[in-house]
TrEMBL record:
It is a single-pass membrane protein. The keyword DNA repair does not apply. Coiled coil: none annotated. Keywords: Acetylation, Isopeptide bond, Membrane, Methylation, Mitochondrion, Mitochondrion outer membrane, Phosphoprotein, Repeat, TPR repeat, Transmembrane, Transmembrane helix, Ubl conjugation. It comes from Mola mola (Ocean sunfish). SMART domains: TPR. The chain crosses the membrane at residues 20-38. It is found in: Mitochondrion outer membrane. Belongs to the Tom70 family. This is Mitochondrial import receptor subunit TOM70. Residues 44-75, 235-254 are annotated as: Disordered. It holds the Pfam family TPR_1.
């Protein structure tokens, strides 16, 4: 796909992205969920996954003296026990009457018992789908017993039914913390609500966001992932004025009649903000380079996060039967990548397959389709595509590194030590044959980190930084390594801060900083970092993920304020 950073597979992990947190050696809380180490993803057993459907206490003993007189509390317990029998028989209205009697009889100072009676009545109302009554009774129970897990969770479910996602999230967050993130049922509800909130907020925000040009580092990294892309190539010989062709150290002047050629000149000068307008001039004039201008304009629309504007331009290029086939194939790759970002894998696959049909010897098609296959957890097909790319372009170090990474992930998740070692040997071969491929060192470092070979992973990141000193992402990964390896929080934050200095539009750096601040318990700072990342998100899907993180952190602030509950911190 149209990106140069490592592809992280989503399918097959069994975990949503909001739960994939820092690897710091022990499980530490992130947002409303637990940190999952990668090798834990294969573990299917989860404690406490049973549903909470029954009322509290099936037959509490009735206390009383030998003379047969019973205290008000004893009478309340008897009413509750009778209600429980009705509940188990499915006679919910009778159960409600008994629980109401218990509430009326129970002395007000017996807060724990009284909270139980309210919670039990809420359970009966829940069976009748009377969500308002469920919320009211659970609220009474929680007021009496603020750490009452059953009441909090039952209220969370009722609030979800009422579409009150914000308060539902706060309740289920409290439940997760109280249960030490060991109950799958509450974790799944938290995940569900966070995803819904994230999608809703991202849809509104993304629709009204101001387009933002990414950093020059990101743009150059993006274009470097293509080797057969006409629009990203330097100005060709016939595109410059004769008197400027031999000027050294100066940007060549281009003919004033072509908006596209001016746009290409601006690309060389890294004056990216003017490219879309110049391409528009070429398109509106029906100039010689209309197809190229449409593709270049669409590419920059995608880079600023305006897929709505990019799609019709890509459609036009794809349907231009007389256009250069490489332009059409490149447009298909970019539209396919766009569809994948929009979570439309079938449309994405169709576009990549069409690109392979019309330009069978284009290595970019196979390289980017290979990354798509990794995302779809189709590793064998991904490896086949990388092999085809390498066959067409043997010097494609990036494809060779990605192939090793795909084989490694397949071996690691399949718990196959011999294949893991084969993949690691493959990385060694890649960095030996392509010592200037920064991506090879970065991917190898990720694999070494998984294998807990931290010292060597650190060396790989250092070599990557030497080759690409302006690559902010590498500094972030190296910072995370310090946390996992040495638990060196100061050094980790220093390296991530360095990433932000290099590229103040690096959303990954802000997201990671926010994640660390959550783990340190600095929730206000975490929310600030997540909001910065949200404003820099390059797709609606990425924005939804970031909103999930931000909402999880905000929910924790509310839980801490209301109940004094805080998860473990670094």
């Amino acid at each position: 796909m149209a990106a140069s950073k490592p592809v992280e597979p989503q399918a097959g992990t069994g975990l949503p992205r909001w739960q994939l947190a820092l690897l710091v050696g022990t499980p530490i809380v992130l947002g409303a969920g637990a940190v999952y180490l990668w090798n834990r993803r294969r573990t299917k057993e989860t404690k406490g996954s049973g549903e909470r459907k029954t009322p509290e206490g099936s037959a509490s003993p009735v206390r009383g003296g030998g003379d047969g007189c019973h205290s008000p509390l004893d009478q309340a317990q008897a009413a509750k026990n009778k209600g429980n029998k009705y509940f188990k028989a499915g006679k919910y209205e009778n159960a409600i009457q008994c629980y109401t009697e218990a509430i009326g009889l129970c002395p007000k100072e017996q807060k724990t018992d009284l909270s139980t009676f309210y919670q039990n009545r809420a359970a009966a109302y829940e069976q009748q789908m009377k969500w308002t009554e469920v919320v009211q009774d659970c609220s009474q129970a929680v007021d009496l017993n603020p750490r009452y897990v059953k009441a909090l969770f039952r209220r969370a479910k009722a609030l979800e039914k009422q579409d009150n996602k914000k308060e539902c999230l706060e309740d289920v967050t409290a439940v997760c913390i109280l249960e030490a993130f060991q109950n799958q049922q509450s974790m799944l509800l938290a995940d569900k609500v966070l995803k819904q909130l994230g999608k809703e907020k991202a849809k509104e925000k993304y629709k009204n966001r101001e387009p933002m040009m990414p950093s020059p580092q990101f743009i150059k990294s993006y274009f470097s992932s293509f080797t057969d892309d006409i629009i990203s190539q330097p100005l060709q010989k016939g595109e410059k004025k004769d008197e400027d062709k031999d000027k050294e150290g100066e940007a060549a002047e281009v003919t004033g009649s072509s908006g596209y050629l001016k746009a290409k000149q601006y690309m060389e000068e890294e004056n990216y903000d003017k490219i879309i307008s110049e391409c528009t001039k070429e398109v509106e004039s029906g100039g010689r380079y209309t197809a190229e201008a449409l593709l270049l304009r669409a590419t920059f629309y995608l880079l600023i996060g305006n897929a709505t504007a990019a799609e019709p331009d890509l459609d036009r290029v794809i349907n231009m039967q007389d256009a250069n086939v490489k332009l059409r194939a490149n447009a298909l790759i970019k539209r396919g990548s766009m569809y994948m970002q929009q979570q439309q894998p079938l449309l994405s696959t169709q576009d990549f397959n069409m690109a392979a049909e019309i330009d069978t010897r284009n290595p970019d098609v196979y390289h980017h389709r290979g990354q798509l296959k990794i995302l779809l957890d189709q590793v064998d097909e991904a490896v086949g595509d990388f092999d085809e790319c390498i066959l067409l372009r043997p010097d494609s170090a990036l494809a060779q590194a990605q192939k090793c990474f795909a084989l490694y992930r397949q071996a690691y998740t399949g718990n196959n030590p011999s294949q893991v070692q084969t993949a690691m040997d493959g990385f060694e071969d890649v960095i030996r044959r392509f010592p200037k491929c920064a991506e090879g060192y970065a991917l190898y470092a990720q694999a070494l980190t998984d294998q807990q070979q931290f010292g060597k992973a650190d060396e790989m990141y250092d070599k990557c930084i030497v080759l690409e000193q302006d690559n902010a992402t590498t500094y972030v990964h190296k910072g995370l390594l310090q946390l996992q390896w040495k638990q060196d929080l100061d050094l980790g934050l220093e390296l991530i801060g360095k990433a932000i200095e290099i590229d103040n539009k690096c959303d990954f750096a802000y997201e990671t900083m926010g994640t660390i601040e959550v783990q340190r318990g600095n929730l206000d700072k975490a929310i600030e970092m997540f909001n910065k990342a949200i404003n820099l998100a390059k797709s609606e899907m990425e924005m939804a993920h970031l909103y999930s993180l931000c909402d999880a952190a905000y929910a924790q602030t509310e839980v801490a304020r209301k109940y004094g509950l805080k998860p473990p911190t670094l």
